[in-house]
Each structure stands twice: as C-alpha cells, then as structure tokens.
Design goal:
The complex is a heterodimer of chains A (112) and B (112).
Chain A lengths: L4 E3 L2 E4 L5 E6 L6 E7 L6 E7 L2 E5 L7 E4 L6 E5 L8 E8 L5 E3 L3 E5 L1
Chain B lengths: L3 E2 L4 E5 L4 E7 L6 E7 L6 E7 L4 E3 L3 E6 L4 E6 L8 E8 L6 E3 L3 E6 L1
Parallel strand pairs in B: 2-11
Antiparallel strand pairs in B: 1-3, 3-8, 4-5, 4-9, 6-7, 7-8, 9-10, 9-11
Classes of the chains: A mainly beta (112), B mainly beta (112).
C-alpha cells in the first residue's frame, strides 16, 4: 500500500541552525501539507502546497519557514534559523482525489 | 474563530465493550469530517470519514455519526480491542480540503 515517507525520523539541531525535513508524498497525489505537533498538544496546520506553490498557510508558518518541491517526488520543509519552540513532531501529508489526507510517520525535531 | 474540540480528553473501556468518542465543531460550513487514530510515535492514521450531507457512516467495526443540528460528531468502536488504544482526533475539512482543523484528541485506553 502506498504511503507517505518522511526522513529523518529524528533530527537534533542547535538553536539558530537551519534544518530541512524531507517527505516523499504518495505518487499520484497533488496536494501536500505540513503539520506540527508539539509534545502533548494537538496537531497544527502549517502549510498546504499545490501546483508548485503555497495555497494556504497558518500564522505559525512565518518567514523562518519555507517549502519546496525540488523534484517530482520530494516535498521539503525548511526552517531557516531554528528556535527552541520549534521542537515538535512534524508531519507531512498528501491528499487523494477524495480529499482524504494520508500522513507520514513524522520527524521529531529537537532544538537544543 | 473556527475550532474543533472534544468533550472527553480520556476514555477507558473494558476490552470487548463499545467505545464512543465525541467531538464538537463550530464551522457549520465544513464539507466533511474525518476521524484519525494516532498511536504513540506514529502519524495520524485515517479511520473513517463522513460527508456533511450524511448522518451516519459505517466501517468494519466503526461507525461515525454526524449531528449537524448541534454540530456534533461521534466515533463508535464496536467490541473494542487492545489494539484500539490510541489517541483519536476528529478533523473538519472545508471546501477543497484546504482548511483542515484537528481537534485536541481523546486518549482511548482499553482495559483487559
């Protein structure tokens, strides 16, 4: 069964460093998403992406964040200068034609 | 603003009993709703969805009920099993799936 894959599973970085979280969405999906989940809290929407551009973003997704689809398979989330409060699980999702989103297993980002 | 919330943060049930997890939503314009299951250390996993023009939908051991009058959504799990132990999120989705809002989650614990 096709699935969304995310790498790495755990990323440890120092405050102020740039990180890139990687996702490979399901191949025939056209809409892609990033979410984050701070430990013990609910999943929060960050950004949606369609046709090589951002279609919607939340207030969390400030200038420190960017997304890119550098090739036909990868979808990346970059945090330019990480802060302690960026520590969270980051989930990538892609959406099928019925509107159902399928999630990856997530990347745990630890900012020290 | 728009929000999706849950009445009960935790629910403990005996193995074999039925479980009912509830969710309240505020955006009456949402097109459909999804229940997700999140096991520890994993991403949200799709369980079942329901369109806004439906009142009830059944899956293999799960049933989702939608009461638009009181903006209430519930997930019923029949014959709850230990493998059902997880956090369950409801999510509401607006047109085109661009507005995707998760509730805070209910933790279901299945007792032997």
């Amino acid at each position: 069964e096709p699935e969304v894959t995310q790498t790495p599973s755990h990323q440890v970085t120092q405050m102020g460093q740039e990180v890139i979280l990687r996702c490979v969405p399901i191949s025939n999906h056209l809409y892609f998403y990033w979410y984050r989940q701070i430990l013990g809290q609910k999943v929060e929407f960050l950004v949606s992406f369609y046709n090589n551009e951002i279609s919607e973003k939340s207030e969390i997704f400030d200038d420190q964040f960017s997304v890119e689809r550098p090739d036909g398979s990868n979808f990346t989330l970059k945090i330019r200068s990480t802060k302690l409060e960026d520590s969270a699980m980051y989930f990538c999702a892609s959406r099928d034609q019925n509107g159902i989103q399928y999630f990856g297993a997530g990347t745990r980002l630890s900012v020290l | 603003g728009e929000s999706v919330g849950l009445h009960l943060p935790t629910l403990s049930v005996q193995e074999g009993d039925n479980s009912i997890i509830n969710c309240a939503y505020s955006n009456s314009a949402s097109d459909y709703f999804i229940w997700y299951k999140q096991e520890s250390g994993k991403g949200p996993q799709f369980i079942i969805d329901i369109r806004s023009n439906m009142d009830k939908r059944q899956g293999q051991r799960v049933t989702v009920l939608l009461n638009k009058t009181v903006k209430h959504l519930s997930l019923q799990i029949a014959a709850t099993q230990p493998g059902d132990s997880a956090v369950y999120f409801c999510a509401e989705i607006s047109f085109h799936g661009q507005n995707f809002v998760f509730g805070p989650g209910t933790r279901l614990s299945v007792l032997p």
